[in-house]
Specification:
The protein is 35% helix and 21% strand. The protein is built from 17 helices and 17 strands. The strands form 3 sheets. It has a 9-stranded mixed beta sheet with strand order 2-3-1-4-5-6-9-10-11, with helices on both faces. The protein starts with 10 loop residues before the first helix and ends in a 10-residue tail after the last helix.
Length: 492
């Protein structure tokens, strides 16, 4: 374990540059316009105003986010990566609040430039000042190169890099180069928090001036000996030789070493040293983890299922330590904070639908799909499933990744299947080749019709599992919101 150096509390102030009266007037007008757009969107019932206010504000003043960030003395934190951003942010916000900080964040998960701008607009007064001590932003990994220069984060956290939306993000190394460019642009006063168990993430920005802090999992008993077939980074980043793993915890995340050049996992600053199953009710298992930090070792509960949430928890703990290395959160406060975290919308979210239960799961790449499948398959009984995917810009048009999912593990347990979305036929083809029975299958592209049919095929008292891409997940959840089964995402 390494000692994490303290960060200069004047780091945020160093970013500030004065603006002229005309620039201030334009900023005020942009903030007023954005706030009015937010109010109008909610009054007219056209959404929660999580993106539109940012669009309006940026039309009036393209520098509104940069000015608001510079006007605020809050510590700025950006969280990005392929998977786990929303949950990591929720955990980090809980830890920060337990430490007494007032937190502003884009909690709804609207993580493109307009959504990030909306969060700043909503929480700023008309002079651009925020009543917050921490500005926490979940940022889409392709958008972070635009957001970071405007926000100028004190802490930049990367959860992982998995194959995801190749038509939008490009391949893994392309995404890594973009993230590395952000790291290289950070000052020495900033801290970069990296997943040391991800070979590609751990390799980023070796010569960057910013401090770095690595997190990961050291627990030997919570993994496999080889990466799964759909793992992505299995070759050495330096020499491209096949990596050798002492233990694999999730996809390609684990304790790796290159037998050719000696490249290996870095020493971890914040590490999970033990993982034990923990019953969190309704047949769902969370984790009790022991964490080693620069401030000592302690045990806490992760009230969400799966090794991916263990990674989210240790990432959040590392982020909290990066924020306050000289005054780390006391173990008792950290335990209480994480114990109160609930699943983000669409992340194995439990929803009551009359006399049936719905589990809504957002799946967008092989790792997230396979991880979610394993958690669902741990639950008893045959499975009633609705699978919905679309090919919008934010979902990605390339569905080749579906063939790297472990649907073959699910089909023997299927009791009923409904397939939906703009790519319903393509998704059904994948299930067909996985052995799904056409006699229990319906292909219904319309989301409302698909939800009704899937619920009708689910007996009272049973559970319907929904595996959905981003757009169908939001559409299906919107239908359930209008039926009074769930609260709007912006109120979560």
């Amino acid at each position: 374990m390494r000692t994490v150096a303290s960060q200069d509390p004047a780091a945020s102030r160093a970013y500030k540059t004065p603006i002229t009266p005309s620039e201030q007037a334009r900023l005020t007008l942009a903030l007023a316009g954005g706030k009015a757009a937010s109010t109008a969107a909610r009054m007219l019932g056209v959404g929660g105003g999580t993106s539109f206010p940012g669009i309006v504000a940026r039309r009036i003043d393209p520098r509104v986010l940069a000015k608001a960030a510079a006007a605020s003395s809050a510590r700025k934190v950006i969280v990005t990566g392929s998977n786990g951003k929303t949950t990591t942010c929720r955990m980090l916000a809980a830890l920060a609040k337990a430490g007494g900080l007032r937190v502003t964040q884009n909690r709804s998960g609207s993580n493109l430039l307009q959504g990030v701008t909306t969060a700043a607009v909503r929480e700023s007064d008309l002079l651009g000042r925020m009543d917050a001590q921490m500005l926490l932003l979940e940022v889409d990994e392709a958008t972070v190169r635009l957001v970071a220069p405007e926000v100028r984060p004190d802490t930049f956290l990367i959860t992982n890099i998995f194959r995801d939306q190749l038509d939008r993000f490009g391949e893994l190394y392309s995404m890594a180069r973009k993230l590395e460019a952000v790291i290289d642009g950070l000052p020495a006063s900033a801290t970069v928090v990296l997943n040391g168990d991800d070979p590609l993430v751990a390799s980023l920005g070796p010569a960057a001036p910013a401090r770095r802090l690595y997190f990961g999992v050291l627990a030997d008993g919570a993994g496999e000996q080889e990466p799964e077939h759909a793992a992505d980074t299995i070759r050495c980043v330096r020499c491209q030789h096949m990596l050798s793993y002492r233990v694999v915890h999730l996809s390609h995340l684990g304790d790796y070493q290159c037998p050719a050049c000696g490249n290996a996992r870095p020493d971890l600053d914040v590490a999970v040293t033990a993982v034990r199953p923990s019953d969190i009710g309704s047949g769902v298992t969370g984790s009790e983890i022991t964490v080693e930090t620069p401030a000592g070792s302690y045990t806490l509960q992760v009230p969400l299922p799966g090794m991916h949430n263990v990674y989210n928890a240790v990432a959040a703990l590392a982020g909290e330590i990066a924020l306050s290395p000289a005054r780390p959160l006391q173990p008792g406060a950290a335990r209480r904070a994480l114990a109160g975290v609930r699943p983000a919308f669409g992340r194995l979210e439990e929803i009551g639908a009359g006399d049936r239960q719905v589990v809504l799961a957002f799946v967008k790449n092989p790792t997230s799909y396979n991880t979610t499948l394993r958690e669902v398959l741990r639950r008893p009984g045959r499975k009633h499933v609705l699978a919905a995917h679309s090919n919008t810009v934010v979902d990605g048009e390339d569905f080749a990744w579906l063939w790297d999912t472990e649907i073959e593990q699910l089909t023997p347990q299927l009791a009923s299947l409904v397939v939906s979305g703009t790519r319903a036929e393509e998704v059904w083809l994948r299930f067909k080749y996985a052995g799904a029975d056409p006699a229990i299958t319906q292909v219904l592209p319309g989301r409302a019709a698909a939800l009704d049919a899937a619920l009708a095929a689910t007996p009272p008292g049973d559970c319907l599992y929904i595996f959905a891409g981003y757009t169908p997940m939001r559409e299906l959840r919107g239908i359930m919101q209008r039926r009074g089964w769930v609260r709007p995402t912006w109120e979560e």
